[in-house]
Write a structure and sequence with these properties.
2 strands, mainly alpha, 73% helix, single chain, 4 helices
Amino acid sequence: MRFSGNIIWLVFGGLIISIEYFISSILLMITIIGIPFSFQTLKLASLALWPFGRTTVVSTKHTGCVFTVMNILWLLTGGIWIAITHTIFGILLFITIIGIPFGKQHIKLAVVALSPFGREIVTF
């Protein structure tokens, strides 16, 4: 089920979202401060490309002003647009009955797209 779910996910927006994350990662790499944090967005690009078989992103205990500043920088370099794209795909997939599981995944990832720093992707 995971493999077929991931293949269907690619068709229903996963590839587009992953490309958006990759472009935002490159924009973060342009800033000197954002280089270490661009690796987090590359992890999110891999999650957006192949989400089934992984749990959702969990919060870590790392909090502070660095993560807050990076989340604000992230919103300016593409996070808001990726969250909007996730929401649009989620709404479109909720309209169809077959697409509801994929719509739920888009909505979960939209929340993560707004503040990805201070979170960790867990696989099982």
